[in-house]
Write a structure and sequence with these properties.
Number of domains: 2
Radius of gyration: 22 Å
Helix content: 25-40%
Strand content: 15-25%
CATH topology of the largest domain: pyruvate-formate lyase- activating enzyme
Length: 456
């Protein structure tokens, strides 16, 4: 596939709307306070799944990156992590009986920055998790790190604990960009970490990049891309910087005048996509790249790719249990989120009240639309007969309004609708979020659209 097909300026400008990323459906904007621990327990008891993915949120960071919209706590007091692990242990003990019939296939640590924890603290956390849950022998353990606070010995310790997948935040290697986002780090140090990770047993390394950051140009980003390709990671994540200073106070330190124009931002995305594909990476979904022999690439070729709160995955059949402050669980027919602040999280555990403070109970319509949206987001295709058989509906009647709203995409030869399939043509891949919006029953609320970022 020629990458130029992705970048018709007229089409991208026409369909570059505000919309969800669809890591879930319904999205987090539909969460309400009617959901609690009881809903989670009922969902786990009635779920047809017997396999589990664990997500543990480590909220701490040593310093503030101005672009970041994640739930984090900036501190240099490492002892705060000990108290946090005390409370995590209490939550884990409470959750374990509900999930004692599950087998854990995946564990992922995100943040914040999980590398805020010392190796001793990581060892303690893994011991707590393994004592509480039934891990499979081939459990896939992955972790995100901030390279500025990590040395080779630290990676060796993570490998000895059982981690085999590593995600490193690079974002950009240009000094002016790093200075503007308050994230100055050594490119050589990152390269050394990638090399050492392979030596000590990590099977996959992902490097994160962001386009649309202050002071980025095609010339500077070319250098960043060259450095990343030289490190030869198994995967690259390419994210669009969403400048939302009204929602994220730290972004107010980034002046609008420093940001690339919309035309330059699109050029940066095109440059990265072409550069990575020329180096042998395959575009996965809308924002990931993987080598052809990576399991994500294989899953996409076989129509088996999935998507959840952590992004693209090969295992959409797993229930997801989120642990720690702000974590989100997705079990059978509910989404449930823990409190977003430490004080609220600690208070809920101390009071032995519900840790989940909000979420949404999915209706059959929600789950049906989720199925359609996720198939489009992952595999660019919906098999209409499969949906009709699974959900006992007449697809064309049920989704008459959605199909009608796809009219402009059909007219532009971006989507085809037959009696058997809805297919998105490969050159419309970057418009998947906009296409999926046709099946979103919640987007009639104009306030919601204003709270989403642009899809490109």
């Amino acid at each position: 596939m020629q990458t130029i097909d992705f970048f018709d300026p007229a089409l991208l400008n026409k369909y570059n709307l505000n919309g969800p990323r669809y890591t879930s459906y319904p999205t987090a904007l539909e969460f309400n306070e009617s959901i609690n621990d009881t809903n989670l327990i009922n969902a786990a008891q009635t779920s047809p799944n017997g396999e589990l993915s664990l997500y543990v949120h480590i909220p701490f960071c040593h310093s503030l990156c101005y672009y970041c919209g994640c739930n984090k706590i900036i501190t240099r007091h490492t002892e705060k992590a000990d108290r946090y692990l005390d409370y995590l242990a209490k939550e884990i003990v409470r959750r374990a009986p509900t999930f004692n019939h599950y087998r854990v296939q995946q564990l992922h640590l995100g943040g914040g920055s999980p590398s805020f924890l010392s190796t001793k603290q990581h060892t303690r956390l893994m011991a707590i998790l393994r004592a509480a849950f039934q891990f499979t022998d081939n459990v896939q353990c992955s972790i995100e790190i901030d390279p500025r606070r990590v040395d080779p010995d630290y990676l060796s310790s993570l490998a000895s604990i059982g981690y085999r997948r590593l995600s490193i935040g690079v974002q950009d290697i240009d000094y002016n960009v790093q200075q503007a986002i308050n994230r100055i780090q050594s490119t050589q140090h990152i390269a050394d970490l990638v090399e050492h990770a392979r030596q000590v047993g990590f099977e996959s390394v992902n490097l994160d990049l962001i386009y649309g950051l202050p002071h980025q140009t095609e010339d500077t980003f070319k250098t960043t891309l060259a450095a990343v390709k030289a490190m030869d990671p198994e995967r690259v994540s390419l994210f669009s910087y969403a400048h939302l200073p009204d929602r994220f106070a730290a972004q107010r330190k980034i002046k609008d005048a420093w940001l690339p124009s919309p035309q330059t931002k699109l050029a940066l995305m095109k440059q990265a996509t072409q550069s990575l594909q020329e180096a042998g990476y395959q575009l996965i979904g809308i924002d990931h790249f993987a080598k052809a022999n990576d399991e994500l690439a294989i899953a996409q070729r076989h129509g088996a790719l999935h998507r959840n709160f952590q992004g693209y995955t090969t295992r959409g059949d797993l229930d997801l249990l989120g642990l720690g402050v702000s974590s989100i669980s997705a079990v059978h027919n509910i989404y449930g989120q823990n409190p977003k602040t430490l004080n609220e999280y600690y208070a809920a555990i101390d009071a032995q009240s519900s840790v989940i403070c909000k979420g949404v109970l999915l209706s059959q319509d929600d789950m049906l639309r989720r199925d359609v949206i996720m198939q489009l987001m992952c595999n660019l295709n919906v098999a209409i007969c499969d949906i009709e058989s699974l959900w006992q509906i007449n697809f064309n009647e049920y989704f008459a309004a959605a199909i009608d709203s796809l009219g402009p995409f059909i007219d532009d030869a971006l989507v085809s609708v037959t009696t058997q399939h809805i297919k998105v043509v490969p050159r419309a891949r970057l418009l998947l979020r906009t296409i999926c919006m046709a099946f979103d029953a919640y987007l009639g609320k104009q306030l919601h659209r204003q709270r989403y970022s642009r899809v490109i």
